[in-house]
Specification:
By secondary structure, this protein is α/β, with parallel strands linked by helices. Helices cover 61% and strands 11% of the residues. Helix 3 links the parallel strand 3 and strand 4. The chain is elongated.
Length: 317
Amino acid sequence: AYMIFGDEPLQSAECSDLIRAAARADGTSERLIFEVEAKFDWQQLQSRANEMSLFAEHRLIEIRLAGRKPDKVGSEILHSLFSRDDTPDIFLLTADRLDKNAQKSKWFKALDKIGVTVQVRQIALSELDRWIIKRATDLGMRLTAPAAEFLAVRSEGNLLAAAQELEKLSLMVEQGEVDIGVALSAIVDSARFNVFDLIDITLSGEGAKAVRVLRGLREEGTEAVVIGWALNRELRNLSYMAVDMADGKPVQSVLDAHNVWSSRAKVVKKVLASISLEQMTKMFRDSIQLDRIVKGTLAGNGWDELEWLCLELARKV
């Protein structure tokens, strides 16, 4: 018997798929599925589970609790099913979160004694980049760290959304290294406007044009969270370069150390010469607050804040 529970649907689904595949490989050809809903008939489950199959030596019996807990009758029936040692059938239970009381119940302990229990949890945002890189590798892609960070931000910690983005990306690009430019162009499909264009126009000091591009991106459906992430990333990198410059390092060595493309070198040099370390640090902090606003964890209008930050950055260049 197997019990998979937790609040992360992708891992739950993939664990269940592995168990089904193993059952098929072991010769299981019959599968019964019970969706536990309001007024679920637990007696019917017990009756079907106690029946001998006419078509297979053993069956896979799936019991999907979703967000429900077994009532008193259901708990007793599950306990009796998992206390038997003479059944050839395989049980697969899936559930959302189970609190400590449910995990201390007789039926849960009986299942845990004879089978396997797996709790799936949300992956911390700090670990999501590595998960994305590994999954991309499984799909035949080598994702760079910035590209993985972009996907993590775009999916907002949702593994299912991240997996879907990677599947889409794998169909749109050839196998090999996928950097941030490839990821942005493949996933954020903007025919007229581009997030990178917005950054470069802003850094060139063209505030009015930057606002027009920003509004165009909004009209074309680009998420505010993606633009906020791009601005935050750019200001973070500029802040690190400003620190190096303040330490007396030559400008070219700073650009080389931070992998600034030659096509952007002129713009970045002008920004570093125009904006002080103190000002750069303040705007980087502003971008962190903006990131919280566009993600909905802080009150405010994300698009208005994006316009303000673009104008503020362009004005200082």
